[in-house]
Write a structure and sequence with these properties.
Elements (H helix, E strand, L loop, with lengths): L2 H6 L1 H19 L6 H20 L6 H21 L5 H30 L9 H28 L13 H21 L3 H20 L7 H23 L2 H24 L4 H6 L27 H9 L3 E6 L1 H6 L2 H13 L3 E6 L9 H8 L7 E3 H4 L8 E5 L8 H4 L18 E6 L19 E5 L2 H13 L2
Parallel strand pairs: 1-2, 1-4, 2-3, 4-5, 5-6
Helix pairs in contact: 2-3, 2-10, 5-6, 5-9, 6-7, 6-8, 6-9, 7-8, 9-10, 12-18, 14-18
Length: about 475
């Protein structure tokens, strides 16, 4: 086929348009103001790709059509029913579904080639066997790892690292078995047993890989698993000679890898430390909490009226949202409180830490849902110099990202991690259910700072009460 004929192929043209849509959509997704348009452009590109693929001839239209209907119904229901606070879990599930689909397609192609092989025992061309085995291994690892991430995020299992003696040795040994099995498939040595040994080993490794990772590192893990799924999809594209899969998989893999590195940099930790450091185990030490999680020692509790008075008569308030706000679904209440404060002439800003929450951009998504003006959202680098001028820093469920130990306690597991400088504000108000530790499993000395007061209770209820009290002043 010459270049002119290839260019005239409607399917190839459709795939080219799809690739352009994905690239433009990804560019628009980089900014909250254009993210919705980027999502629509990417969705349009995917629709074009699906239609173009279906025109190439389908053997069992009933099965394909049924799969499309069931998948579309599940997708529409999930998108409409899922709460914004549960978006990380949904991302983990969808990511796992992508990895699992890539692994299953590779397995199906592997079995087809075995049946059609002219030799007995069957053999595969080296180029095809490499892409097939890579797609199966990476896809299955992403699938099982994403399922464990979902279970942790949904709190169906503990979010703390699950570790045991010799864990790294077991994982290393399993990785060696997978690599050896993959090489056996490529060399044509007992390929059926070797393939399914690699496939099953990758499924198991995905589980063992995510178990020792705590909730604090889940944003990085989600990004990394997303990159794995993209790589698996790209390998599947080579298996099926499908250009749009290669393009989309490469885009997802590259963007996921870049995001993973950026998230690690934001925590001032290496990828190896994130993946193998078992970060988030509860640390032994002096507790700051008293009976029932209430304040004790140097920790001061405050009433709603006290905090409302402090906020209403401030000139500048910086709100610091965290996962506690997400759990309580308090983003709309926070917006209402900000509106009431602005009516009193208070300037309100929002400090966004890059790894606050359980997925990249978690706080941005929640506050955007509550229609918080984007110019009021400040990245960590921009807001930190402004804390010293703020009258009040209002921390809503953010723990580790406000912990001063990251700056001045070398023995702390979060030492060196960039944090929001809330302790430099004139006054600090922390909204928490109790004095329990955050994802890192360590106490926060901010709570014993003489400038800090604690307002205990559910974040949504507390913020609603604060908004009502401010309105009444």
């Amino acid at each position: 086929m010459n270049a002119a004929t290839a260019l005239a192929n409607p399917v190839d043209i459709a795939y080219l348009v799809t690739g352009i849509c994905f690239i433009v959509g990804l560019r628009y997704l980089s900014h909250p103001r254009t993210a919705r348009l980027g999502n629509r452009i990417s969705a349009a590109g995917m629709l074009i790709a699906v239609v173009a693929t279906l025109t190439q001839g389908i053997v069992a239209w009933s099965i394909v059509g049924g799969g499309i209907l069931v998948g579309a119904a599940i997708g529409i229901y999930s998108a409409r029913a899922v709460k914004m606070t549960a978006m990380p879990q949904m991302v983990a599930l969808f990511n796992g579904a992508g990895g699992g689909a890539a692994a299953l397609v590779a397995t199906g192609e592997f079995l087809r080639l075995l049946v059609e092989s002219p030799t007995r025992p069957p053999t595969l061309p080296i180029d095809e066997s490499i892409t097939i085995v890579l797609s199966a291994i990476i896809g299955s690892l992403s699938f099982s790892g994403s399922i464990i991430a979902f279970l942790k995020l949904q709190e169906l299992m503990t979010g703390r690292p699950i570790v045991y003696r010799g864990q790294q040795f077991v994982n290393g040994l399993l990785a060696i078995v997978i690599v050896a099995s993959a090489i056996a498939v490529i060399l044509g040595t007992n390929i059926e047993m070797a393939f399914f040994l690699a496939f099953g080993g990758a499924l198991l490794l995905g589980v063992l890989f995510v178990l020792p990772i705590g909730g604090a590192d889940m944003p990085v893990v989600i990004s990394l698993l997303n990159a794995f799924t993209g790589l698996a999809a790209a390998m599947t594209g080579f298996v099926l000679s499908n250009n749009v899969l290669i393009i989309s998989g490469a885009l997802v893999g590259a963007s996921g890898t870049v995001l993973t590195l950026l998230m690690s940099k934001a925590m001032n930790r290496s990828i190896t430390n994130v993946l193998f450091g078992a970060f988030g185990q509860v640390q032994a030490g002096a507790a700051l909490s008293g009976a029932n999680g209430k304040a004790s020692g140097n920790v001061r509790a405050a009433s709603v009226d006290d905090v409302a008075m402090m906020l209403a008569y401030a000139k500048e308030v910086i709100i610091v949202p965290g996962y506690g706000m997400a759990v309580a679904q308090a983003q709309h209440s926070v917006r209402e409180l900000a509106d009431q404060l602005e009516k009193h002439g208070v300037e309100v800003k929002y400090a966004i830490h890059p790894v606050a929450g359980r997925m990249p951009g978690h706080m941005n998504v929640l506050l955007a849902e509550a229609n918080v003006p984007y110019p009021a959202l400040y990245d960590m680098e921009d807001i930190n110099p402004q804390f010293a001028r703020a009258d009040v820093a209002l921390v809503i469920g953010a723990n580790d990202v406000t912990n001063p130990a990251a700056r001045n306690v070398p023995s702390s597991p979060i030492y060196g991690m960039p944090i929001l400088d809330v302790d430099k504000a004139q006054n600090v108000v922390v909204l928490k259910r109790s004095m329990n530790t955050g994802f890192a499993g360590i106490d926060n000395p901010l709570y014993e700072d003489p400038k800090t007061v604690m307002l205990f209770g559910d974040a949504k209820k507390s913020v609603d009460e604060l908004a009502g009290a401010v309105k009444g002043l």
